[in-house]
Amino acid sequence: MNESKEPISVREAARRLDVHPRQLYQSANDETRTIGERWKNIQRYRAERNREIAREAIQAAYFKIQAEGKCVNLRELRNHVPNAILGSVRDIFALIEEVEERIGPVRP
After folding, report:
1. Under a CB-based contact definition with an 8 Å cutoff, are residues 71 and 108 in contact?
2. What are the φ and ψ backbone dihedral angles of 19, each rounded to 5 degrees?
3. Separation between Cα atoms, residue 76 and residue 98, nearest integer Å
4. Residue 53, by phi and psi: left (phi above 0), alpha (psi -120 to 50) or beta?
5. Tens digit of each residue's pLDDT (9 = 90 or more) over 31-82
6. Alpha carbons 26 and 17: distance in angstroms, whole number
């Protein structure tokens, strides 16, 4: 059960085997827990990677917006950063604050 190269969730493994996820835990507890941990780790890694990509895009847009003489806000960021990037992270306001702290107070 644990031979797949691509990590999958326990729910997906159960779907592929046409069983309920609880049955996986009952019949192969250690392997199922391993699958679950691998899935959590890959999800955590993807979230961190998406956050870093969004941080870089926001930082680049931040300077462009200020160069235009505009105030940096979510509306302006949405105009400069693709929705696929902004929509891929949680707590976008905290990320904007991180970028502001990183680059320091830059006022036109």
Report:
1. no
2. -135, 170
3. 17
4. alpha
5. 999 999 999 999 999 999 999 999 999 999 999 999 999 988 899 999 999 9
6. 14
What pTM, to 2 d.p., does this model score? 0.74
Report the distance separating Cα 76 and Cα 65, nearest Å. Answer: 7
Tokens of 68: 């235009």
> What is the C-alpha to C-alpha distance for residues 66 and 106, in angstroms, rounded to an integer?
8
Question: 48: buried, middle or exposed (CB in 10 Å: 19+, 13-18, 0-12)?
Answer: exposed
Alpha carbon distance 84, 40 (integer Å): 22
pLDDT one-digit tens code per residue, 81-99: 999 998 889 889 999 999 9
pLDDT band at residue 3, thresholds of 50, 70 and 90? low
- CA distances to 9, 44, 68, 72, 92 from 77, rounded to whole Å, are 34, 25, 13, 7, 11
